[in-house]
Amino acid sequence: MGVHLLPREYHTRINKASILVWVLGAPAAVFLLKIWTESFPLWLQLSFTFVCVAAVLFVLWASPRCFTSVDRYGVSWRSVVRIRRLVWADVYDIRTVTPPAPATGRHVPEDVVYVYRADGRRFPLPYLNAEELGEDEFRREVTFVRDIMDEQRGGVWVADPRVEAHIAGHAARYARRYRALTGRTSMALFLILTLAIIIGFTTDFG
After folding, report:
1. Distance from first CA to last CA of the chain, Å, rounded?
2. Statement: residue 188 has pLDDT above 80
3. Closest listed residue to residue 94, CA positions, set 153, 134, 174
4. Is residue 6 classed as helix, strand or coil in its secondary structure?
């Protein structure tokens, strides 16, 4: 079918360097400015500077190298820390899932593509999404990948009730935890904890 079009690789098509600089670099710069303008010990100033700069540089270096790859042997994907791979024989399914909406706010979740292992465990496939590909191309690529999966794993695929139950249970547990973490109480506790850490930090070293 579409094997001659393989391998298929998905990388970021959005220049995220400037976004990462602002999201990570700006807060780090403000934090370091506070460290260096106060009477902190020199070793502490140097330590925090090294950690912040190293973290920002690592993310800027690693983020563009993440990918999802589909070939005739299976699916592989890379996060910022490791590369994982599943051969087609170990792939239970590939599905598009709409994440649960947060308990607070108006954020509309975007669809996420997961590859499911034979035991029901799922893994997100980075960059195979509408944000990177556009809505129409995203739908076409998901259909293409699923067609390749059906062709390469061979035989007639039949859903396993035990695996389906595991998948449904995991999705329900994840939705409950996510809504609890994004609820008003959790957000308020997070803000209180953050303020307490900041106040404690400035009190101890200020």
Report:
1. 67
2. no
3. 153
4. coil
Specify the pLDDT at position 115: 95
Strands (E), the chain: 8-10, 67-70, 74-78, 83-87, 91-97, 112-117, 122-124
Token output for 194? 């953050």
Residue 6: count of CB within 10 angstroms of its CB? 16
- Both tokens of 38, joined, read 């106060």
* Sheet with strand 83-87: strands edge to edge: 8-10, 67-70, 74-78, 83-87
Q: Would you call 121 helix, strand, or coil by DSSP? A: coil
Structure token pair of residue 162: 């035990």
pLDDT in tens, 41-67: 888 888 888 888 888 787 777 777 788
The answer to whether 63 touches 51, Cβ cutoff 8 Å, is no
3-state SS class at 159: coil
- b/e burial code for range 53-83 (CB count within 10 A of at least 16 → b): eeebeebeeebeebbbbbbeebbbbbeeeee
Residue 31 CB coordination number (10 Å): 13
Structure token digits, residue 184: 């008003």
Q: Which parts of 63-183 fold into alpha helices (H)? A: 130-133, 135-153, 161-181
